[in-house]
């Protein structure tokens, strides 16, 4: 087995996310073409690097102690203050200067949303999976800065528990286009997050409106962000904050769509489903994109071992988990064009079914999985 080394030197590539900061500053100062540099950096440059550098299939020692991961963890710990200054500093700057036209400002804050979604929410995802209060609070703050705080509850209490079933909103059904998926998730996600917290409180003998319901914290944090944006930039600041948040959410849900498209867990009867295994998530080993997304593409292992920190996530072979043909930047672009997406992915879903569920062979047997009509799993 190819073994990777955990060291401060090997942590350096995961800090490439900081490259968006000078690009945003250049865009704000210079306008013109410069306002679009962040998407070019995050999407195209890393896709080119994936092509040049190839795959990283080396696996680190999963028993590595947290103390040896400091330089990996530190980038996630500092990201909230970086993103906070990035969002609100630019809101203040563009609303108190006159050299950028309306279109340039719109593209600049599209770039901010690409940063707060591609990087910020991914880092929030890593932080909210940890057990210490500092990391969880940083995760909450990052999510509030894109108005998607319920993601914490939905991800931890719903997605990980019910992935591969219809109770999980972000498991994309076979043949479900991204545009339908996106608006469906925006409707279903907040509701399922509220219901999950309500059920958790009920098990503790508490009402849904009890102060321990984290949604109250979510709303306070999000309202505070909106008020601050308005104080800094007035109505325009408010609108720009909403715009970057929308783009960030769009980036997140594109990623969610890619991660589980068409993959379902076997229904065992009576609302019971098999345990989550590596083959219920798409795996991708493209080296450069895993640097940018702190190994998020090793998603098969993340679902198999959700509490494993990102430097220790394992890669899986084709025999163990289904593989994406390209990294997330290319795959999310394809997802925006449903005919192209189905051409690339539907044959792979069929091959996955043949490999892992050869006994579910007939159209009648497979149809409930494709359409999401199997019984909902037990709560």
Automatic annotation (TrEMBL):
Protein's GO biological process: lipid metabolic process
CDD domains given in the database record: Alkane-hydroxylase (cd03512)
Domain Fatty acid desaturase, residue spans: 106-332
Keyword Nucleotide-binding among record annotations: no
Membrane topology per record: Multi-pass membrane protein
Keyword vocabulary terms for this entry: Cell inner membrane, Cell membrane, Iron, Membrane, Metal-binding, Monooxygenase, Oxidoreductase, Transmembrane, Transmembrane helix
Transmembrane stretches, start-end: 12-35, 70-93, 105-124, 226-250
CC terms in the record's Gene Ontology section: plasma membrane
Localization (cell): Cell inner membrane
Top-level division of the source organism's lineage: Bacteria
Gene Ontology MF, one: metal ion binding
Family label: Belongs to the fatty acid desaturase type 1 family. AlkB subfamily.
Protein name: Alkane 1-monooxygenase
């Amino acid at each position: 087995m190819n073994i990777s080394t955990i060291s401060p030197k090997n942590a350096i590539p995961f800090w490439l996310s900081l490259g968006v900061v000078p690009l945003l500053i250049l865009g704000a100062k210079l306008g013109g073409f410069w306002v679009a540099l962040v998407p070019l950096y995050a999407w195209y440059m890393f896709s080119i690097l994936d092509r040049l550098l190839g795959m990283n299939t080396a696996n680190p020692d999963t028993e590595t102690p947290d103390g040896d991961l400091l330089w990996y963890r530190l980038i996630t710990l500092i990201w909230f203050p970086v993103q906070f200054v990035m969002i609100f500093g630019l809101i203040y700057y563009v609303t108190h200067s006159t050299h950028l036209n309306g279109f340039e400002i719109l593209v600049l804050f599209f770039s901010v949303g690409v940063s707060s979604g591609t990087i910020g929410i991914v880092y929030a995802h890593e932080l909210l999976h940890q057990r210490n209060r500092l990391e969880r609070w940083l995760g909450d703050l990052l999510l509030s800065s894109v108005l998607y705080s319920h993601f914490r509850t939905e991800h931890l209490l719903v997605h990980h528990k019910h992935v591969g079933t219809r109770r999980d909103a972000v498991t994309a059904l076979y043949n479900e286009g991204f545009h339908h998926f996106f608006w469906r998730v925006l409707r279903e996600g907040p509701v399922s997050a509220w219901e999950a917290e309500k059920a958790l409180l009920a098990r503790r003998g508490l009402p849904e409106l009890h102060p321990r319901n984290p949604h109250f914290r979510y709303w306070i944090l999000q309202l505070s962000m909106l008020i601050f944006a308005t104080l800094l930039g007035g109505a325009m600041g408010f609108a720009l904050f909403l715009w970057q948040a929308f783009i960030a959410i769009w980036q997140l849900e594109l990623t969610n769509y890619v991660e589980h498209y068409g993959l379902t867990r076997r229904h065992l009867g009576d609302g019971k489903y098999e345990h989550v295994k590596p083959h219920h998530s798409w795996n991708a080993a493209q080296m450069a994109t895993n640097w940018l997304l702190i190994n998020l593409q090793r998603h098969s292992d993340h679902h198999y071992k959700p509490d494993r920190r990102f430097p220790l996530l394992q890669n899986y072979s084709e025999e163990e988990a289904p593989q994406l043909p390209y990294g997330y930047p290319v795959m999310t672009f394809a997802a925006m064009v449903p005919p192209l997406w189905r051409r690339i992915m539907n044959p792979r879903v069929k091959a996955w079914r043949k490999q892992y569920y050869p006994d579910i062979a007939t159209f009648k047997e497979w149809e409930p999985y494709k359409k999401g009509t199997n019984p909902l799993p037990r709560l």
